[in-house]
Amino acid sequence: MAEPSKVIHVRNVGHEISENDLLQLFQPFGVITKLVMLRAKNQALLQMQDVPSAINALQFYANVQPTIRGRNVYVQFSSHQELTTMDQNAQGRGDEPNRILLVTIHHMLYPITVEVLHQVFSPHGFVEKIVTFQKSAGFQALIQYQGCQSAVSARTSLQGRNIYDGCCQLDIQFSNLDELQVHYNNDRSRDFTNPNLPTEQKGRSTQHPGYGDVGVGFSQMANAAAIAAAFGGGLPPGISGTNDRCTVLVSNLNPDRIDEDKLFNLFSLYGNIVRIKLLRNKPDHALVQMGDGFQAELAVHFLKGAMLFGKRLEVNFSKHPNITQGADTHEYVNSNLNRFNRNAAKNYRYCCSPTKMVHLSTLPQDVTEEEIVNHLAEHGTIVNTKLFEMNGKKQALVMFETEEQATEALVSKHATSLGGSIIRISFSQLQTIRENSL
């Protein structure tokens, strides 16, 4: 293996593969500063902004075979440390004005979407394109204006400012890219000059026929890049990304308190649920079939040893490749409560082990903190709550005394009705609730 370099050497680049295809493969891992196509050799050289971005990309594609238009491509570090064809300033970006801004968001307590960034940056000029991604430095975005003067004005007035009171601080530099490549219009990227772009890559849509099919493994997931983007260009520690077993065996359940819907509410945090079966001959056991092997691996990894209804859960891969549909199975394959049919990358990004803090969304607009507390209080001691608004919609954070109480509240009250709205509950990775008002 060559010594790590920010330059990546790509082989088997067929004539049908475009520059945009290659950019799409590597954009989740960070900013790409240069791309050279070596058409005569069916190869390409691509320079990332820094060495860690390139290492993340190569580590990820060591586990996941990168394919473009059905063709396997092969990636390795280049023997070049730098592509000299590039007119570089000191950092590859910095103070030289450009119509594209590189924005890093520090202390991000609330999710930042393309819409939020557009609201913040559009007063300074026409925003053509926005691309967002997760990096080791934090959440970053590239924002392309129509003209350079708009970018200069935005940087001058927004540098160091907070999007929300006390958090989400903007750190803005000029990018040295000439043009952003946007392939999808969704909550992570947007081309405001081309509203007709698809929201997701074909094959990752809600109608994916693979859900529920045996052996629809991680390697067949059409959009490995969504997972890469979600996890900052790598995989969470302990996740191999190579598991193809879709069915999970859960044991040491509390048979008096558990049912299929409660299991659905917990396991659907980590992927789409096909079907669930409680084992009649072993009432503290259940089988859960996930959408694919990667989602099953996330569930096993994050839920192993979790406490629920006074029991410590055992979560392992089942020897059964799938659950046979029958009178004793509950079907969820077509459930509109499956979370990963929309915004898959965002849902992957929020995967974590149970925490003391839950996040509530799709709340009624006139909801009060008192109503939220009354709805959840039977499940444990509520230490703190915060009601806030995001993109004009009410959301809340509720902190319990223990992870087990928060887990019980989530499995019991996700997808229940509060004030006429079906509420959505997830675990939050925030440690504390800041008191600053939004």
Question: Would you give an account of this structure?
Answer:
- This protein has four domains: 7-77, RRM (RNA recognition motif) domain (Alpha-Beta Plaits, 2-Layer Sandwich), CATH 3.30.70.330; 100-191, Alpha-Beta Plaits (2-Layer Sandwich), CATH 3.30.70; 224-349, Alpha-Beta Plaits, CATH 3.30.70; 357-427, Alpha-Beta Plaits (2-Layer Sandwich).
- Helices cover 21% and strands 28% of the residues.
- The chain has ten helices and 25 strands.
- The protein starts with 6 loop residues before the first strand and ends in an 11-residue tail after the last strand.
- The model is unreliable at 86-93 and 202-223 (pLDDT under 50).
Total of domains:
4
N-end to C-end Cα span: 50 Å
As for the CATH topology of the largest domain, it is: Alpha-Beta Plaits
Largest sheet: 6 strands, antiparallel
Beta-strand content bin: 25-35%
Radius of gyration: 23 Å
In helices, the fraction of residues equals 10-25%
| Oligomerization status of the protein chains | single chain
CATH superfamily of the largest domain: RRM (RNA recognition motif) domain
Structural class: alpha+beta
Identify the overall geometry: globular
